[in-house]
Amino acid sequence: MYKFNLLYRDFNCDFYNYFKYITYILTLGNISNIITANIYVY
């Protein structure tokens, strides 16, 4: 159970970093996307 929780935490961290990277790529062009990305991050 502990190993599963550790793997699940690592997976969530990787997915969060991937989501942040995608939102960063999307916000390079549009200011409206920057506002929505800030809403998603916070």
What is the overall shape? elongated
| SS content category | mainly alpha
Low confidence ranges: none
Counted up, domains total: 1
Mean pLDDT: 67
Major sheet size, sense and barrel closure: none
Order of helices and strands: HH
Number of strands: 0
The number of helical runs is 2
Q: What can you tell me about this protein's structure?
A:
Keywords: Membrane, Transmembrane, Transmembrane helix. The protein contains 2 helices and no strands. With 42 residues, the chain is mainly α. The chain has one domain. Helix 1 packs antiparallel against helix 2. The radius of gyration is 14 Å and the shape is elongated.
Provide a compact summary of the structure:
It is built from 2 helices and no strands.
Write the layout of secondary structure elements.
Elements: H1 2-26, H2 31-41
Keywords:
2 helices, 86% helix, single chain, 0% strand, mainly alpha, 42 residues
